[in-house]
Design brief:
By secondary structure, this protein is α+β, with helices and mostly antiparallel strands.
């Protein structure tokens, strides 16, 4: 019989006995469990009920929602209403009972790393039955299962030593139970590996799989989590996708190449009679690659750091369920200060504009300074006291423009469609105190504790996001619309101050302005600082007193082609590209090269060098085309055809030809439609040269001193 503990027992173990919380979660039996580890490594498992824990602080204030539906039920609680399988873990996290937690209320706790094993696992299946995209179905027979642990442990089983898929799954789960790593990680494991194993495993082992939502509310998808008490199961691909990592694709091999870790091996033929040694090496290699990515990104630290900072369960953070992170962090902070939230429902749907994006001054510019508002939306919430619990509204009148903002020393008025909302910062709310705390705490540790600072940034941004998300328990459409309107007001105001100092604002997007002048670099920097000083002086007399804009970066040159599409050249020769990808797979190799050449040419010292550089490239491509020397890599784009990965290119007969990836010889020449190929290359070049006033391809060839073919 497992011992039962309450919150005071846990606090005593952590405070007086030097123990730490290793794991929390719901067991297969349905009870909520906490695993506590002592300094000598001994682990003890307890059952508890977080919903029975008393509040340690007297309640001095109750927070209602201004936009609650009339007559809707109100639930007064220290955590948001929750009927999911994670409700106990979420309530416990609010109380600080979390991995490495201190068992106390309050957001933004720091995580001290726990030395523990991480086990990467991967399964391989027969490919007789596949779904769209060439992926196996979950009922496909398992050929092998492999594991590699950070401690050096290796596990492998296949059809050679197991009689069935069910037996292989049983062996893997037994290995995990025996080894008891803190983390088990896979790639696309929730939706495939785990689902496949749950399908094949014996009925008594199915209880070790927890079926959970893995996608957004608007497009829900479901997968399986391996639910072994004491071990967190993370789908590394899902985490990286939802935490907005930037990769050309999220195939394991592509991510490995982009990150510079162990290369992923080429898949052997997954059919009857697959080569046993090839299968073993391939299966274990996938584990190695996944483990390499996990280690390189230090995700075994990032996920629990985010969990403690946001007062959220590890599984919410590993699945990046940002809709719960903000309400939980805000709840824990509020209750720690004696404020209890009266949760209710708001069903008002309201559309509103986002950040202000300026029309760019297209072309090539020199000595560009980027000036950026620090934590714009959190600062607006803190400074103007934007919070869902206390604001007033009145009907708008004729002449009040939607989105218009008026500020005084103590109030902020925002016209939102048919009403005007007023926020008074004379008495700061618990929400404004929370946002001020997040901004201050992040600034204090930005350099010394970068991972912790990043966790705070995720939390602060999630609060704004939750206010505008209709399925969030913090949903307040008026607050969300007010925040973006004030943001637009601030960026337009900044542009006016820059212009008054004689600077040209060549572009601006949401919270930043790019400025230049006709003077020297030093003169431009001096003007930018003068404009910012005057802007801050203006803000200091209004409710926007916390708004701060800083010079964030200087670039030697920049190419502006369109909104959210530009390329900047740093003084060290490296580039920053936004909206411009030189590794796009939806265009041919020649088009990708054309983009690279165009950018390099536009950064040349004078116009004639730019024209000649591009002209030489056009001439070389034309010569290759006429000589029949264009390769499949030159003219094809990566595509899907009948569920298979392939390379598509325009054939000389006018049809699109598809070459399966497995059969493709990228360096081999092909009989292509030269006209279509050259037209696509010209269009790619002109995406850069026309906005930069260099002209069309024909203009470039006429102006060039290079002898064209």
């Amino acid at each position: 019989m497992m011992d039962y503990v309450d919150i005071e027992d846990l606090r005593r173990m952590v405070r007086q006995e030097g123990c730490f919380i290793r794991w929390t979660g719901r067991s297969a039996s349905g009870s909520f469990q906490v695993i506590v580890q002592s300094s000598d490594g001994t682990r003890r498992k307890y059952e508890c009920d977080p919903f029975s824990w008393p509040l340690p602080h007297p309640i001095t204030n109750r927070l209602r929602f201004e936009e609650a539906n009339e007559g809707s039920p109100v639930i007064e609680a220290c955590s948001p209403p929750d009927e999911t399988m994670f409700k106990e873990a979420r309530r416990a996290s609010v109380f600080g009972v979390n991995i490495g937690g201190d068992c106390e209320l309050g957001a933004c706790k720091k995580y001290s790393s726990i030395e523990a094993c991480t086990m990467a696992y991967d399964i391989e299946t027969r490919m007789d039955k596949t779904r769209e995209g060439g992926f196996a179905l979950i009922d496909s027979d398992i050929l092998s299962i492999a594991c590699r642990c950070s401690c050096g442990l290796e596990f492998y089983t296949s059809t050679e030593d197991s009689s069935s898929s069910s037996e292989m799954v049983s062996k893997l789960l037994s290995s995990m139970l025996d080894h008891s790593p803190l983390w088990t990680i896979g790639w696309n494991s929730y939706n495939f590996d785990n689902e496949c194993m749950r399908y094949h495993c014996s009925s008594e082992l199915k209880t070790l799989f927890l079926v959970s939502r893995t996608g957004a509310f608007s497009k829900p998808t479901y997968g399986s989590i391996i639910n072994i008490p004491g071990t967190y199961n993370v789908d590394l691909q899902l985490y990286m996708v939802k935490s907005l990592y930037k990769f050309r694709s999220f195939k394991l091999g592509d991510v490995a190449k982009d990150m510079g870790v162990t290369d992923k091996m080429k898949m052997p033929v997954m059919q009857e009679g697959v080569n046993a040694e090839e299968l073993r090496n391939y299966n274990l290699n996938d584990c190695t690659v996944t483990l390499d990515i996990w280690k390189k990104e230090k995700i075994e630290y990032i996920i629990p750091s985010l969990a403690l900072c946001t007062s959220s369960p590890v599984y919410d953070c590993s699945r990046y369920v940002t809709g719960t992170l903000a309400p939980l962090g805000y709840s824990s902070y509020s209750v720690s200060r004696g404020c209890l939230i009266q949760w209710s429902t708001c069903s008002t749907l309201q559309s509103y504009s986002g950040g202000y994006v300026m029309e760019p001054v297209r072309g090539v510019h020199k000595d560009i300074f980027v000036c950026d508002f620090k934590s714009m939306y959190p600062a607006i919430m803190a400074s103007c006291n934007i919070n869902p619990h206390s604001f007033s509204t009145r009907p708008s009148v004729i002449g009040e423009e939607n989105g218009a903002v008026r500020v005084t020393e103590k109030t902020t008025e925002v016209c939102i469609e048919d009403k005007v909302a007023t926020f008074d910062n004379g008495t700061p709310s618990i929400m404004s105190q929370f946002m001020t705390f997040l901004i201050t705490e992040r600034d204090a540790c930005r350099d010394s504790l970068p991972m912790y600072a990043k966790s705070i940034k995720v939390l602060s941004n999630s609060v704004y996001g939750s206010l505008g998300y209709s399925n969030s328990t913090l949903y307040s459409p008026t607050c969300a619309a007010a925040i973006t309107a004030i943001g637009r007001h601030c960026i337009k105001l900044a542009r006016r101050f820059f212009t008054r100092e004689g600077l040209t604002v060549i572009y601006g997007d949401t919270d930043s302005c790019m400025v230049r002048s006709d003077g020297s670099r030093e003169n431009t920097a001096e003007k930018a600082r003068a404009a910012l000083d005057k802007l801050h002086s203006h803000f200091s007399t209004t409710s926007l007193h916390m708004m701060k804009m800083e010079v964030e970066a200087h670039y030697a040159k920049g190419i502006m082609t369109d909104k959210k599409r530009y390329c900047m050249l740093r003084t060290d020769g490296s580039t920053k590209k936004v909206g411009i990808s030189l590794s796009r797979k939806d265009v041919s190799g020649l088009c990708r090269l054309a983009a690279t050449v165009s950018i390099e040419a536009l950064f040349a010292e004078n116009r004639s060098n730019t024209i000649d550089h591009i002209a030489r490239f056009i001439s070389a491509v034309s010569s290759l085309a006429v000589g029949g020397n264009l390769t499949l890599s030159d003219v094809s784009r990566y595509a899907k055809k009948d569920g298979m990965s392939c390379y598509a290119y325009p054939h000389a007969d006018g049809e699109i030809r598809y070459v399966p990836e497995a059969e493709a010889v990228l360096t081999g020449t092909v009989d292509c439609d030269i006209g279509k190929v050259l037209k696509s290359v010209a269009e790619e070049i002109e995406r850069f040269t026309i906005p930069c006033r260099v002209g069309s391809v024909s203009d470039i060839m006429r102006a060039s001193t290079v002898e064209a073919w």
